[in-house]
Specification:
single chain; alpha+beta; Rossmann fold; D-amino Acid Aminotransferase, Chain A, domain 1; 3 domains; five-stranded parallel beta sheet; five-stranded antiparallel beta sheet; 22 strands
């Protein structure tokens, strides 16, 4: 291992900012492409955007990087890992073929079926008329999923059969999510509680991180449209020791074995979206990268060295890396721009960032940029992930929301109930 490595992180969200902080804290030089107004304080921002495969390869070679860490799903689906490895660059993330676990929900569902991985019953359609007929004949409302990548928004959880049909129309006829909606997966709506389960993989072995819980709906109480995620916390108590063992045995292990058997060994991070009902876990979806904002709570709760973990996985050998117990608890609140998750407004000046920072509080930038005078302005829908790491979740929530209260810009909105499921089950401390 290089004592002081040069690491290029691809992406511009709070996930990439959190990973940059984690790797830089180990004494390594960090380059982020393209980064945001926060990552520039950790390392150096580069020019190439996440969808510029050739530009990213050229940058990695020009800077002589020791490791590339790919943040978002888009460049993975475009084959960035394959392009880098073809030029001899070590990279953390799955190749294009293995990335189909996320980039095609059709592939994912059929993979689960082939390898006995527990998931919801489903049907796949590339004809809108046939999909609508199936929805009308269903006994219950369905979950409607665009087959391809849709920035975390291509899933419509229906409360009525009419909503299922409307979802099909939005995806297949109106093409709300573009080419991602050429086909749809219609599946039963599972009961239970969701959790985000991340494992870092080397193709055969897996190191589990703290189980987390994301909050997808835009409003308090899980109301309103789905978003890319409005906040997260870890560890999530719904994943107790028994559930953890079942996920590793019934889901993670057969997934890695199945991918290897099909000639596409999985290296990188496998993020299993779970639905857990009375101790029984089933797969809602696979993601092939760290969740955002989940990464902002996984980073502080992992007790090991982040560079060593990611580099070992990229080398294909995690045998010397053990999974430490999660340290404390972390909670992160997403502060969003006016108009999100529809058409977010950009260019609003963010005030109070310096006031909000104190011990154990993290402000991870996502949709931000620098104004000409050096100030920070909004540049996307999810603008900041403001979090805290404490010995327990209640203290982490209090500190995170205290910091959120110090930050302002016109039209900002956030949820006030991140972590509520766990906090309602946890007695007050002291």
């Amino acid at each position: 291992m290089t004592s002081r490595a040069r690491v290029m992180i691809v992406g511009s969200g709070s996930r990439e900012h959190a990973l940059a902080v984690a790797i830089a804290s180990g004494g390594h030089r960090v380059l982020v492409s393209p980064g945001n107004a926060g990552t520039v304080a950790v390392g150096e921002n580069l020019r190439a955007t996440a969808d510029d495969t050739q530009g990213l390869v050229d940058q990695a070679l020009a800077h002589g990087v020791d490791l590339v860490v790919v943040g978002p799903e888009g460049p993975l689906a475009l084959g960035l890992v394959d392009a880098l490895e073809d030029r001899g660059v070590r990279v953390f993330g799955p190749g294009r073929a293995a990335s189909r676990l996320e980039s095609s929900k059709t592939f994912m569902k059929r993979f689960c079926e082939r390898h006995g991985v527990p998931t919801a019953q489903f049907a796949i359609f590339d004809d809108a008329d046939a999909a609508e007929r199936h929805a009308r004949s269903a006994a219950h409302p369905l979950v409607v999923k665009a087959d391809g990548l849709a920035a975390g928004k291509g899933v419509i959880v229906s409360d009525t059969i009419e909503e299922s049909i409307a979802g099909i129309r939005r995806i297949m006829r109106e093409r709300e999510f573009g080419e991602a909606g050429r086909s749809v997966v219609l599946e039963e709506r599972l009961a239970g509680e969701e959790a985000s389960f991340h494992v870092v993989c080397d193709g055969r072995r897996a190191v589990a991180l703290a189980p987390a819980q994301d909050h997808k709906r835009v409003g308090d109480g899980d109301v309103g449209p789905n978003t890319g995620g409005m906040g997260a916390y870890a560890p999530a108590p719904i994943v107790d020791a028994g559930v953890h063992d079942r996920v590793m045995r019934e889901i993670v292990r057969p997934t890695l074995e199945g991918m290897a058997a099909e000639g596409t060994p999985f290296r990188g991070v496998l993020f299993v979206g779970l639905m857990i009902d009375r101790g029984t876990p089933r797969v809602l979806e696979y993601n092939v990268r760290f969740g955002d904002p989940e990464a902002t709570v996984l980073v502080p709760t992992y007790g090991g060295d982040w560079f060593e973990l990611l580099d070992a996985a990229a080398r294909g050998d995690l045998s010397s890396v053990e999974a430490p117990r999660p340290i404390g608890a972390a909670l992160s609140v997403v502060m969003a721009a006016a108009g999100y998750p529809g058409r977010p407004r950009t260019g609003d000046r963010i005030e109070g960032l310096d006031r909000a920072l104190h011990s154990g509080v993290s402000i991870m930038h996502a949709g931000t940029s620098r104004a000409a005078d050096g100030g920070v302005v909004t540049a996307g829908g999810r603008v900041l992930a403001v979090g805290a790491h404490r010995t327990n979740l209640r203290d982490a929530a209090r500190a995170a929301y205290d910091a959120v209260a110090q930050i302002h810009w016109p039209g900002e909105h956030h949820r006030s109930d991140i972590g509520r499921r766990a906090l309602d089950k946890t007695p007050p401390v002291g």
